[in-house]
Amino acid sequence: MKPRSSLLILLFFVIYIAGCSNHSFNDLDDNGKIAKSHLEEKGYDVLSYQGKSTLSFSTSDLSVHHHMQLWSVQSIQPDHIIDKKIEVETFYVKDHPLENEYKSENYFLGKVGVNVWVYDGKSIGGISYPVIKKNTGLAGAPYSLDGRTTDEVQGDYDTWSREWLEKYEYH
Asked: Number of folded domains in the chain?
């Protein structure tokens, strides 16, 4: 398994793009409702809505390490959404697989953050991460929306990253 050395940076990015304040479920637009419904269908207890942001990936973005980490836990390929706007809906949930992995850690706050990617009226992917106490120094890569690692989604990270870079680097 590849070391998870960039989670701290990613978590700060997630907090920055999603905003730090809770929002009411009444604030949900159509994409927010799609994302919330997707999480509920997966069996997660949606605790709170943290806000929305957008992502867009150019072809050159796809060979940048932190973007590769995001894509390494997706089950879709980015080709049809390159240079398109992806809505990111952020929630805190319970009953998520990451709770079991982190429940014994004293820095874990007992809930999981999820960023659901919505494009063209459909949930297309996203990431999840443990919600932790500030300044704990937790580091690593993101998990898939359902809490899987890159190796669990793509197979061997080294093989996946080599093939990914062959496809997207310098294109």
From this structure: 1
User: Which residue's entry shows tokens 């479920």?
Assistant: 25
Q: CB within 8 A of 79, min separation 6: which ones?
A: none
Nearest CA to 88 out of 70, 68, 69, 105 is that of 70
Residue 2 is assigned to a structural domain of this protein:
no
Tokens read off for 87: 């809505």
Residue 86 and residue 124 in contact, taking contact as beta carbons nearer than 8 Å: yes
The pLDDT tens digits along the chain (171 residues) read 444 444 334 444 444 444 444 567 877 999 999 999 999 999 999 999 999 999 999 999 999 999 999 999 999 999 999 999 999 999 999 999 999 999 999 999 999 999 999 999 999 999 999 999 886 665 678 999 999 999 999 999 999 999 999 999 865
Domain assignment present for residue 41? The answer is yes
Question: Does residue 1 sit within a domain?
Answer: no
Show the domain range for 45.
7-168
